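User: Fold this; tokens only.

Assistant: Input:
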Amino acid sequence: MNLLGDLYYAGHGVSQDYKQAREWYEKGAAGGNAIAMANIGYLYERGYGVTQDSKQARQWYEKAAADGNSSAMSNLGNLYQYGIGVPVDIAQARQWYQKAAAAGDPNAPKRLEELKK
């Protein structure tokens, strides 16, 4: 279901349709797929196929992170680093990036370095 969502998100073999992508991601999330949960968070963060809603994005990222999704952890760090829907909190950002790095997110070490500047 998540992969079908990805096809609609990117428009591979089908017309690009963020609303269809969200529907498939929601089905995957209902089945416990943490990647689908993170993808829904991203749609809400960016306003793709939904009304942009940072609170919803954070909630979906938190669900995905609780299930071990490293990109959701990194995205939570991003929300806190830049104050997207939450107050800027560098300590929180650092914690999420550290968790993401430990879970294997390839972008997290780079983001941790940015915090040192």
